[in-house]
DNA sequence: GACAATAAAGTTTTT
DNA sequence: CTTTATTGTC
């Protein structure tokens, strides 16, 4: 099996301490480049080697990519593949994102939670659509309440597990009171659509922990060893969720680095990691401070920068790596010059033998990539831009997926209205509105209304016929997908989702004993509950009761109040259709199959599987269904006719079909719902890969977790990095500094940093102010080049040349009307006009090539000619 | 119902 | 200066 010794051989002392910690809380502060992933992987393997059943291990990551990589690496160390069918009941370690975990839980317990098995999952654009609808329904002008703003406020509330009722209660001012109304309406709309948004996945799961008896205890016993990666990025909902799961066995291992927290704006709460030791006073703390990635120089720069953050635990990164070269800081003239500088330098590295794929360019915002791209393109430097969600955000892709979602969930009106007229079938907005209105008046869903649209008065016969035809089409597809027409489910038991039977997963006799015990406990529990009583009438377990702290800030250390005040929760019932849960809950005998006995849908177990209503898989797989949809919906023909000349849309759709075929192959038992679950929660799907032989361009945020031998960071200017929106907020400013820190620590060997003296932002060409962060870097480790002209002491950020302001000003005296001049960017020109203003002398110059420009003499690096 | 004109807004974005 | 979404017109 696994030899614990070989697992630990090549680890350092602190790494080993972390990897061999078994029981009890553990905090791993993992500095940048400290071998975090390696430690996590080894620890999982070590646990298994100690006889801990693999399926009782839960590792939570933030991205699917991270989960995939970790699965792969764990599998590698353990010598067997870690598979994942996206279900709760699987005999191997669970490695997934928070959202995926929640989805698994909600689907597994869908009956008890009061959700159908076929709810849709709304991404942020769906959310925005629905919020717009809510605003409209409430007759709120979007002038003062932009959907984006409201969207943010609601998302924020959900991250903090604040229900609409609580939100309304706490709303003091007009804005919050209005948002409260929208929030309430929005939730109602979600319910009506039988949909959850991303944030709901978390929130509903935490609610289910409180409201559904036995659910939490079952999960607690299932996942006895919990590991959370990137813990500094968890929000409040995730925090509660994880700690609720860990509460019983207290085997909670969190890994993170406060200095790399860059998602506070998205609800991440840095206190989660800073206060872990308060939550678990008995926690072991391991600090990984040795860096294996970067040169001493790069590390020194990063360290000195981050030391400027005040809200911070001190950490001393060190390395045995070489000193390395100085970082190159270049003050460029403008963004074009900047791009040239970077491009030329990268080209030089390439000529010296560095592969393109080893280099990356980071920037604060996507808009900065453009000029950079042009420069690379012009000079034939291969590059890729990492924009994760690009593919799945394409219209044609979203359309196809909307069709599939509609097939799975006809109540999903966001998807329905998205595709009902794609391609156009004579069913326009006006007709749709009429039909929808009729439906509201007659208590019919939109889909039901469409079915009888031909008989609705006022609806044109053309629209009516189109609607009926559309409904027929969807029904046909539903049949193809194995969903009984007219019914919501056919109750077919779900297929076994366990993988390769036989091979013991985390085997050993200890495991078998453990799992048997757990299985027994489970079935006892379930029988206790399966006596026909409504689970919801049971009082919640003792530990779920009790009072809240003020402001919804419930910390784990106050374990009794983890779930807040009961009455608070009562204000937020799960769903009115809780009556569904009247049916006794009969969980599987082996909801969490032990390794040697994978779940098999025998006659017996078919009964014991929770009565989930997951539709069987489409005949011929998802791929077949998708192809049929694309063909018979007319999408294919439409794209062929009206799409781009190169048929790129069609190619994208074909790519989606290929991916679906892949899914069919990997998960032969996978259903349409499984597929949708996967694509809903997967935005990037290794789509971008590793840059493969090209320079990688990406935002600083996207760079987290990656490393490159050569890194360039551009746009070190006030208002860009730090971003202007963080101007007056010290916490935000510190986050910007962390962002820069993350960027720097991605570099292994070489670091380039650039700043443009003039930059065109939103069409306005303006002088820039250097980023204050530049001044925080240790001069000794920098090689500063100033191409921008020595005209402004500030522009150098305190470094560089010796020319004084006086030198330069002296030169300006000789300018007057009619003078021929040369400008570094605009070339030759003649001064047409000069005016003295408070802020300096302006000259209107007619350039030969660049046209007429107004420049401030003091700043423009003009040279007299003739 | 399709297209063009116009207006508004424009950090970052793991799911 | 862009891109995107909504409006208005044919």
TrEMBL record:
Residues 9-295 form the UvrD-like helicase ATP-binding domain. Belongs to the helicase family. UvrD subfamily. ATP binds at residues 30-37. GO terms for biological process: recombinational repair; response to radiation. This is DNA 3'-5' helicase. Keywords: ATP-binding, DNA-binding, Helicase, Hydrolase, Isomerase, Nucleotide-binding. It catalyses: Couples ATP hydrolysis with the unwinding of duplex DNA by translocating in the 3'-5' direction; ATP + H2O = ADP + phosphate + H(+). It comes from the Bacteria. Residues 516-536 have a biased composition (Polar residues).
